[in-house]
């Protein structure tokens, strides 16, 4: 599958990403896009200081991002560390918000394979609806593609009925060709989503990298008939950035991908900026940041 992956025209890719980033949209379309950005958000906290109390508060915000405006939708999911999954499951019971947990040796994706697979099984047993794991870049960048593929197949089996998101950590792959190859490998192994980044290194989601993955998912769907979702994560902090990704998604994969079932934004601080932009579009003025709850 790696040898059959087409080479990426890096100059053309970056020019197209830059051109799509300049697209402007009308007010009604902007409100629709802001609403969709919220519905596609995986509200995330992956810090060593995360506590039960923080997760309780975050789950409340995930369900009702703006407590004073019931028209603002819930986010797609919360994304947290494994030991906090039971707390999130309890807090989100009866809501539409899904529980996503990192697992499988996050963020390095190394360690004994059976230990990583057992962590995936454990978070699913605790009630996680989705599992975010990391591609073994040590194997992939070392040319051991078959072993990297087999690890992902085993992870897909370990996840059972839960959705599996495979993080490529694109900032460590070195080229768009590598991003395209890693995308193909993960999709062929059964990933339900391919994801840009862990958010734990210096280079996270970028528009050209996301476009490269969008095009990979488009071609995979054309060749196999299977739709694989995309998740951009790391560094998406402003509403205008989220809208740029949505415009690019629409132009590359079309309206059928404009849904939380096929697109996610992993973020911790994005939600407040989107809420501020919605208030501005509706009232003509910005609310202060302290108007909204802290993430």
Structural features:
295 residues, 11 helices, 47% helix, TIM Barrel, globular, alpha/beta, 8-stranded parallel barrel, 8 strands
Summarize the structure in words:
The protein has a single domain (about 10-290), classed as Alpha-Beta Barrel (TIM Barrel), CATH 3.20.20. About 45% of the residues lie in helices and about 10% in strands. The chain has eleven helices and eight strands. It has helices at about 10-20, 25-40, 50-65, 85-90, 115-125, 135-140, 145-160, 175-190, 205-225, 240-255, 270-285, and strands at about 40-45, 75-80, 100, 130-135, 165, 195, 230-235, 265. The protein has an eight-stranded parallel beta barrel, surrounded by seven helices. Strand 7 (about 230-235), helix 10 and strand 8 form a beta-alpha-beta unit. The longest helix has 18 residues, at about 205-225. It is globular and about 55 Å long. It starts with 9 loop residues before the first helix and ends in a 12-residue tail after the last helix. The model has no long low-confidence stretch (mean pLDDT about 95).
